[in-house]
Amino acid sequence: MSTQSEKLAEVGLRHQLAIHPLRVLNPIKANIFYVPVYEFVSITLGSMPTCSRQVPPQLLSSHSSRMVHAAAALRNSSHWQRCFGCDHIFASSFTDSPKSRIQSRMQPLSEVLKCATAGRYKARSGGGCQTEVPYGTNYHGVQRYEAAPEADRPLLVSFFGSLDVCCSGAGIRCAMGDILATVLGQTDVLILPSVRFSNMTDIFASQRRTFANTCSGRALRMIERASNASHAAEMRRVWLGSVATASEHSESQILVSQRAGYSMARSIFCLIPPGDNFISSRLYSAIGAGCLPVILHTTILHAAAFSSLVNYTAFAVIVPADAFLRDPGSLVPMLRSMPAPEVRQRQRALAAARPHLLFDVMNGTAAAAHFLEMAVTRCFPQMGNCGMRQRGNGIVHNTRVTTHNTRINKVGTNAGLSLYQPPTKRAA
Description:
about 425 residues; alpha/beta; Rossmann fold; 2 domains; six-stranded parallel β-sheet; 12 strands; about 10% strand; glycosyltransferase activity; Exostosin_GT47; Exostosin; Exostosin GT47 domain-containing protein
């Protein structure tokens, strides 16, 4: 359990592949090789000199050392050597930034995996082949839903997050502040903006200003006009209690994560606007908590994991960005007017789709199967060519590439594929 669970998609994926019906313990029988990298975990742990496990010391010294030794192990693998890893897969939902790219974070392992298929939170152009996988979900929401999937949902709609973002979602996030002024007194609507600060100095400074020139400040001024100054001041105090700081594992962040997850599990609808990127973990956390996503930009739908295999529109409410921006205040009344039979139909569709979209839920092997299928159909032929280029004029096992054209949506039934990952001590 972590407040940074969104960056840990490979943990759930590793669990689902371990129990997958296509898994084999004999690598000679395998068509697909899974490489468990655990990139974010390794970086977060860094040096582990006090670890009591009996492991080689070089694996405890640093993240960089672990990547070096993982690269060496792969290079020495006869299965990797066959086509330079063209039938290998790995995943990481650790996000990139201008100063931190997966290629540099995983060096030299990333160089060894240049012909492998990467599962990422969004597919990018460039070297290698990538396919979308879901972010990790909010553990608290998933746990609450799976404990009582038919529990009452006293909240109509909820949203936790910042109104002030850059890039893709700036306009929509700012317009979400308009909703706040129209739902005053509606106790079944919970919209709690968080405030972004880089350090505590910024927080204390903010308490002496009125969020000037921010969308949060604009929303507070709208609330003050719709109610009174004291109510706006109370809202400001509550927002400052939902601060998003650079300290990702603070007690306050744990409480915010818990509240967000529990609120999703208590809500019928969850607002899914774009943020700094179109796609975020919020979509998958809502699905994990059984909350119907209200997607406020059609690009989110196209960027979502496995959208070519799973019908999101069966359960998600899709609101085009221009329609929302024209009249943000009409969104909640529209959701409130949805007939109960339609709500229930969407909830049943979400429950059916959930294990096909998320790795960290019960029966998530279906989602893992979708990752395998996307890798095989979208990437393996291209990566087979990558292996050929790496070998020069040598011959790669073409049977490995052609077999991969078999679709595997019916996992374990005449699929023609098998998956290998190193057995754990328990399985050995």
